[in-house]
Amino acid sequence: MAASTSISLSFLLSEVNLDETTDQIVSSTGGDGVSTVIQSLLVIAFVGLSILTVGVIYIAVTDFLQKREKEKFEKEEAAKKKKGGRKGKIVARARGGPRGFGQKVEEAEDD
């Protein structure tokens, strides 16, 4: 029985024209409109994700540059203070209000 199956199988395979079979497979996908819609949605998704990625990169770079500029400014200010020394007099003001944890603020009553 195996011999007859292999003979019939080889007979069927020899009669099959591969070009016609591939054309039938390709044309049997159905509507071209559906594939166009899916392709359009994929392109839109790709463009949207590309814009989102560029936006995230832009935000990261600007944040990095602002932090670097801020640190540079703080270093310059620290160098100016260190260079200038204590030229001005430091005035200590008395602070009104509670001086420790859990103390209530005593307000003056206007009578």
Largest sheet: none
**Helix/strand/pairing class, anyone?**
mainly alpha
Content of β-strand: under 5%
| N-to-C CA distance | 119 Å
* Helix and strand run: HHH
The geometry reads as elongated
Task: Summarize the SSE layout with pairings.
Elements: H1 2-15, H2 18-27, H3 32-84
Region (Disordered): 74-111
Keywords: Membrane, Transmembrane, Transmembrane helix
Biased composition (Basic residues): 80-92
Overview of this protein structure:
The protein has helices at residues 2-15, 18-27, 32-84. It is mainly α and 111 residues long. The chain is elongated, with a radius of gyration of 40 Å. It starts with a helix and ends in a 27-residue tail after the last helix. The model has no long low-confidence stretch (mean pLDDT 76). The chain crosses the membrane at residues 42-65. Residues 80-92 have a biased composition (Basic residues). Residues 74-111 are annotated as: Disordered. Keywords: Membrane, Transmembrane, Transmembrane helix.
